[in-house]
Amino acid sequence: MKNKTHQKRVAAIHDISGFGKCSLTVALPILSAAGIETSALPTAILSTHTGGISGYTYRDLTDDMHPIMQHWKSLGIPFDAIYTGYLGSFEQLDIVKEFFDTFRRNGNLILVDPVMGDNGELYTSFTRQFAAGMRALCQKADIIVPNLTEAALLLDEPYQPGPYTHAYIESMLHKLADLGPKQVVLTGVYFKDDELGAATYDRTTNAVDYAFTKKVPGYYHGTGDVFASALLAALLNGFTLIGAAAIAVHFTAESIRRTYEAKTDYRFGVNFEESFPDFLKELKLI
């Protein structure tokens, strides 16, 4: 068990869905379980997530974001990391850029998960113009965590389905790093049909690494949020980029595997909660 003299604090800027595990209902428990204090700045409140569920309620909280930010600023609250996920508008992108400028300090980490699409398709609420706005946000990040669809959108390139080649993945990693972030973690990577994982690139060392696990059949909502939250939790607990990515791959895959074996409705999200014991062991917290 680790002894800590300083508890890390994260500002998590995401929407919150009352049902269906994603965004803040994933980020908060994962980061908290890893011993990290998490301050939530919600961008919207939904009754459920939007994947495969109709009739959901939606309340936009854009007008509340700036006052929350200003209150935190007035209190002088420092953050060890800032973590952004789904952002619903250009206005929210601009507010988050201001948040970065306001709360950036020496040694803290800005992680952007550029949530825009999957499986080669933009989410229906977004346009290619929004992808350009997300690109500008990624330029301010220390680390970005796109999937292959989002990577293509950020680079304004056609989406390429897998299996991939090492040359293609490493080219994508370098081009994404050229946008500005020091580190890139690319998810949804596979070279063989029975594997799935992530590729990492650190611009300061020019190192490319991979973390894979056996692929589980099916498509599961919220897994990108599970992965990014676990990645950040590991980074803030002192792990290297590839070490953190490997922990996040294992945690996400185990959560998916448990959900698959239970034959849970895919719309409900994955059972990450029962994966915590192994996750905390990997983090060396227990």
TrEMBL record:
The lineage of its organism: Bacteria, Pseudomonadati, Bacteroidota, Bacteroidia, Bacteroidales. NCBIfam families: PRK07105.1. The keyword Transferase applies. Residues 76-263 form the Pyridoxamine kinase/Phosphomethylpyrimidine kinase domain. Keywords: ATP-binding, Kinase, Membrane, Nucleotide-binding, Transferase, Transmembrane, Transmembrane helix. Gene3D superfamilies: 3.40.1190.20. The chain crosses the membrane at residues 226-249. One of its GO terms (molecular function) is pyridoxal kinase activity. This is pyridoxal kinase. InterPro entries: PM/HMP-P_kinase-1, PyrdxlKinase, Ribokinase-like. Its EC number is 2.7.1.35. PANTHER family: PYRIDOXAL KINASE (PTHR10534:SF2). The keyword Transferase applies. It comes from Parabacteroides faecis.
